[in-house]
Amino acid sequence: MQWPGIIGQHAVQEILQRCIAQQRIPQALLLVGNDGFGTMALAIEFARTVNCYSPVIDGHSVIACGSCQSCTQARTLQHPNISIVSALPTGKLDASDELRKEWVDALYGLAHDLALNGYSPTRMEGANEIRIVQIRELNRQLSFSMTQRGRRVAIIANADDMNVSTANAFLKTLEEPHADTTIIMTCSRRDRLLPTIISRCQVITVPALDESTLADALMQRGSHAPDEARIAASMAQGDYISAEAFLAEDVRQIRDSAVNLLRTSLRGKDFRPALTAAVHELIGQRDRQRCLAVTNALLLWLRDAYAIVQGGRRVHLLNADQQEPLERFASSFARADFDAAYRSLERAAADVDRFMPTQLVMLTTMMELRSVFLQARR
User: Which of 178, 197, 344, 353 is the most exposed place for a label (fewest CB within 10 A)?
Assistant: First the structure.
């Protein structure tokens, strides 16, 4: 049986459901992967299931009944046994060391969105850090007696947002576990967590969604056109949230802007001012998502161009509406080292994931692509 609302991830679901069905529920879980892979959606479904009064069990599979009192509360994440901790924006606390009212309201809004869709963003706008006061409040809540039967589940979204002092405070929570309590952490950057935290968790890697599964989900959940869903799925690298963001922004427009950027980089010797201006306009100051979209769009477009170099006009193209421009490009740069171009774009995506300045990453990448393709004309 599959949990409702989860896209793919059958192997991970099997592991988590087996833990519940066999009543071998860990006290600490670490789900490693992007939110768009389903880490938060899985954590929420796990919390709902362990608190269900009448779970449906079939062998090692178990799902929540969806109709008991607990499921009714969990459906909106208004359940006394379920709590979510997420990063807060930069800013000072007030004199009483309490969270600002606007932050509390924003966190309630975030929980409301996640209750409706586990693939909603898990950070409020401008958020970048989980505060130590949040961990202290979590410890305070866990110290109280449970008011409702079931199991308490505390979900720490993007646990890698904890700074050193917060992480050390949280480590004490893991070292002194509470009865009938599971702490679930999600993170995409495991290397930013303390090794002592990782060692106290059952670690489960949540892999990227395959393109076919992602495209199907985009069509079924978002009613997107098949061709646009396939392009977005290819650009998003297995991340449903990224794919939806690309579609909201218009994947064809992103693709066309990316190709125009490549053309600008291949102009004559006075290309630099135009390239710098184009990067600034397209990427902005810190738009990581846009930068990743552009690099992925270029990667797919160049793969189509190379397919034409290798197989001629009869090959299947992802960017089918770009047949003529792709054929012209393939004809002009048939001798180019396309593998070097792919490596450059893949390196750019990795640099963006490491939070390097997006404009610098894109300018460097476009200069590398210029070198790759102009060498083919010499």
Answer: 353
According to DSSP, residue 206 is labeled -
Domain of 300?
A: 250-375
Confidence (pTM):
0.77
Looking at the predicted structure, is the pLDDT value of residue 105 above 90? no
Same-domain pairing of 322 and 190 = no
Distance between alpha carbon 32 and the CA centroid of its chain, in Å?
Answer: 10
Q: Are residues 19 and 119 in the same domain?
A: yes
Q: Say whether both 274 and 194 belong to one domain.
A: no
Residue 102 reports pLDDT greater than 80: no
Q: What span, in angstroms and rounded, lies between the C-alpha atoms of 265 and 281?
A: 14
The DSSP-derived string for 272-304 is HHHHHHHHHHHHTTT-HHHHHHHHHHHHHHHHH
DSSP state of 101: H
CA–CA distance, 255 with 294 (Å, rounded to integer)? 7
Question: What is the phi/psi pair of residue 152, to 5°?
Answer: -75, 135
Same domain, yes or no: 255 and 178: no
Summarised one tens digit per residue, pLDDT across range 5-26 is 899 999 999 999 999 998 899 9
